[in-house]
Write a structure and sequence with these properties.
Elements lengths: L5 H12 L14 E8 L10 H17 L2 E9 L9 H11 L5 E4 L2 H4 L3 H12 L5 E4 L8 H12 L1 H21 L11 E3 L5 E3 L1 H15 L4 H9 L4 E2 L7 E2 L4 H9 L6 E4 L2 E4 L12 H7 L8 H7 L16 E3 L7 E10 L6 E10 L11 E3 H14 E2 L3 H49 L9 H26 L5 H17 L3 H11 E8 L8 E7 L3 H6 L4 E2 L6
Parallel strand pairs: 1-2, 1-3, 3-4, 11-16
Antiparallel strand pairs: 5-6, 7-8, 9-10, 12-13, 13-14, 15-18, 16-17
C-alpha cells in the first residue's frame, strides 16, 4: 500500500475542497436532494399543469433512474427575473448552506434563476463544494469547469431563455392536448365547451360535414369554397357572438387536411385519439379522410397509423361512395338514404321504407338532382359476377401468390411490433420497480407519481402484445385452400343480394371493381340505365386473357 507524503496529503485535501472536478468521488445515493419546481405568475409560460409536469419529468429523468434520495419538494409560483424576490427559493439556498440538502434538482436552469445574482450564488455554492450535485430533467450537468461554464451560458443567454420559453409553453400544451382539450378559439363546425371539448355546432356542423362529402365525391376545393360562401356560414369564436366568415381556398385546404374532423386532435407533433376520451362526433370517417388526403402528403406516420384503426361508427350511406359516376358530366355521384312511408296491403299497418340512392349534384349537368337506386348498380355487379366466375386453378394460384407476398410483409410488421412491445414492457416494468423502491425510500414523492397509472399502462401494453401474437397466428393460417377459395368466390354474388351490412358489401365489390358509370336512357321519371364498369387487376387481366369460368358452374 502506497504511503503518501505530508505534501501529497495536503495536496489531496486542498483538491477535495477547491471545487476541482470531484464527480467521481461523490456517491449520489448518499446525498440528500431537494427538488425545486417553479412557474411564473405572469407571461406566456403560465400554465395550469406546469409545476406537476416539471416534478414528474424530474422524477422520470433524474430521480427514478439514479435512485436519488429526495427529502423535500419545493413548489413556487413567482418570477425569477428579479433577484431576492422568491421566498421559497431563498430558503432553499439557505438550507443548502446549512447542510440540510446536498443536491438540487430542477426541470431546467431557468427554473432556478433568470437573473445573474442568484445564478452566481448557485455557481459559487458549486465552486465551494457546498452544493455537491445539480441535476436537470432537460439537460446533463457535470460538476467541473466545463459544466459550470455551460451552466453560466444557460443562465446568461437571452436566446436560450426565449427558446426554452417556447419549449415550456409547448410542454404545457402537450399535456393539455393529451386530455383531449382543444387549444384555440375556433374549430369550424364545432362548439368549444367550458372544459375545452369539441361538440357539433348544429347547422354549422352539417355544413362542414357536407363540405367533406363533396370532396369525397370528387368536387374541387374551388367548388367547395364557392358552395361554402353561399351557405351563409357564420363562425362561433370562444365567448363571442357569431360573425360571417368568408372562405378562401387556403381555408378550405386547411379544413380538409385537419385530422380532428376524423377524430384525431393534432397539436404540433402531438396526436391524440379523441374517441376514447369523450363522446366526440367526427365529421368524416377515417377511411374517407385518408382518401382525400394521400398518406404521402401527411408528414406524420404516427398520424396515419393512429387513424387506420377502424372506426366503429360507420356511415350508413357509404356503399360504393365515390366510385359511382354520372355518365353525363363524369363527376362522382353523391349518395344518401331516403325514406318513404308505405302501408302493408294485408295488415294495413304503416311502415317506413329506406332506399339508398346515388344522385348527381353538378350544377350544369342535365341529370342534376336525378336519382339512381343503388339496387340498379348492385344488380349489374351481381349479373356480371354470375357470368364471370374467377374460379380456375390459375386464378387461385395468382391470388395466393399475391396474398403470400402481402402476408410476408404483414408478418414482418407484426414481428417488429411484437418485439418493440416486449422492449417497451420490459422498460416500463423496470421503471415501475425503480419508482416503487424510490417511493419506499422517499415517501414524500408518492403524491407526485401514480403507480396505478403505470400499472394500467403495462397491462394495456401486454394486452396489445397478446392480441398481436394471436393475430400473427391467425395470419399464418389465413391462406385458403383451393376448395375454400371456390366457396368464397361462389359466395360473392350471394353476399351482394342477401347481405344487409353495407360496409361488408362495399368491401367485397371494391376487391373486383374500381368504378362504375351510370348513364340514363332519358331524363324522364321512368327511365332505364346503361351501367358500365372498370375492373381491378388481376381480374381485368383474367377477363382479357379469357381466364375465367362462364356462368354459375358447379357449386362446391
Amino acid at each position: 500500500m502506497d504511503v503518501k507524503t505530508p505534501t501529497q496529503q495536503l495536496l489531496a485535501l486542498l483538491q477535495g475542497n477547491s471545487g476541482t472536478d470531484t464527480t467521481n468521488q461523490i456517491d449520489e445515493k448518499n446525498l440528500k436532494y431537494v427538488l425545486y419546481a417553479r412557474k411564473s405568475t405572469t407571461g406566456e409560460e403560465r400554465q395550469e399543469r406546469s409545476i406537476p409536469d416539471q416534478i414528474q419529468d424530474c422524477m422520470k429523468s433524474c430521480v427514478v433512474p439514479n435512485n436519488l434520495n429526495v427529502v423535500k419538494v419545493i413548489q413556487e409560483k413567482y418570477s425569477a427575473k428579479e433577484p431576492d424576490t422568491r421566498v421559497a427559493f431563498r430558503a432553499v439556498l439557505d438550507d443548502i448552506k446549512a447542510g440540510r440538502y446536498d443536491g438540487l434538482i430542477a426541470w431546467h436552469p431557468d427554473r432556478l434563476s433568470r437573473n445573474m445574482k442568484e445564478a452566481g450564488e448557485i455557481i459559487d455554492l458549486l465552486d465551494k463544494g457546498i452544493l455537491k450535485d445539480l441535476k436537470f430533467a432537460t439537460l446533463t450537468f457535470e460538476n467541473n469547469p466545463t459544466g459550470k461554464m455551460l451552466l453560466g451560458i444557460s443562465f446568461v443567454l437571452s436566446k436560450q431563455y426565449s427558446e426554452h420559453l417556447s419549449e415550456s409553453v409547448a410542454r404545457g400544451n402537450r399535456h393539455i392536448t393529451e386530455k383531449g382539450e382543444f387549444i384555440g378559439q375556433l374549430k369550424h363546425g364545432y362548439m368549444i365547451s367550458a372544459d375545452r371539448k369539441l361538440y357539433p355546432d348544429g347547422q354549422n356542423f352539417t355544413v362542414i360535414k357536407r363540405a367533406f362529402e363533396k370532396r369525397v365525391e370528387g368536387e374541387s376545393q374551388l367548388d367547395i369554397m364557392k358552395w361554402l360562401n353561399n351557405t351563409g356560414y357564420a363562425v362561433r369564436r370562444w365567448q363571442k357572438d357569431p360573425e360571417p366568415f368568408v372562405w378562401d381556398k387556403d381555408a378550405v385546404h386547411k379544413l380538409l387536411r385537419d385530422p380532428v374532423y376524423a377524430g384525431v386532435l393534432k397539436y404540433g407533433k402531438n396526436l391524440v385519439d379523441l374517441m376514447p376520451l369523450y363522446d366526440f362526433e367526427p365529421a368524416i370517417s377515417v377511411v374517407d379522410f385518408l382518401k382525400i388526403n394521400k398518406t404521402s402528403s401527411l408528414y406524420s406516420s404516427k398520424l396515419v397509423s393512429s387513424m387506420l384503426v377502424k372506426n366503429k361508427e360507420t356511415t350508413r350511406a357509404n356503399y360504393l361512395r365515390g366510385i359511382v359516376y354520372c355518365g353525363h358530366c363524369r363527376k362522382a355521384f353523391s349518395s344518401g338514404i331516403t325514406t318513404k312511408p308505405l302501408k302493408d296491403a294485408q295488415t294495413k299497418r304503416r311502415y317506413i321504407e329506406e332506399r339508398y340512392y346515388y344522385r348527381c349534384e353538378t350544377l350544369t349537368c342535365p341529370f342534376r338532382n336525378k336519382s339512381v337506386p343503388s339496387t340498379k348498380v348492385t344488380l349489374h355487379i351481381y349479373n356480371y359476377l354470375i357470368e364471370h366466375q374467377f374460379t380456375t386453378k390459375d386464378n387461385y394460384d395468382y391470388w395466393t401468390g399475391e396474398a403470400k407476398k402481402k402476408l410476408s410483409q404483414t408478418l414482418k410488421e407484426m414481428e417488429t411490433r411484437i418485439t418493440s412491445l416486449s422492449k417497451t414492457i420490459s422498460l416500463k416494468e423496470k421503471e415501475y420497480q425503480q419508482t416503487k423502491d424510490l417511493i419506499r425510500n422517499s415517501p414524500i414523492l408518492q403524491e407526485h407519481y401514480d403507480l396505478k397509472a403505470l400499472t394500467a399502462e403495462i397491462k394495456t401494453l401486454k394486452t396489445e402484445q397478446t392480441r398481436l401474437v394471436g393475430d400473427r397466428k391467425e395470419a399464418k393460417e389465413a391462406l385458403p385452400t383451393y376448395k375454400k377459395y371456390l366457396e368464397l368466390m361462389n359466395g360473392v354474388s350471394d353476399i351482394l343480394m342477401e347481405e344487409e351490412d353495407g360496409e361488408l358489401k362495399d368491401s367485397v365489390v371494391r376487391v373486383f371493381f374500381s368504378n362504375f358509370t351510370v348513364t340514363a336512357d332519358s331524363f324522364e321519371i321512368k327511365r332505364g340505365y346503361n351501367i358500365t364498369h372498370k375492373l381491378n387487376e388481376p381480374f381485368a387481366g383474367f377477363v382479357k386473357s379469357d381466364n375465367f369460368v362462364r356462368g354459375r358452374g358447379e357449386r362446391t
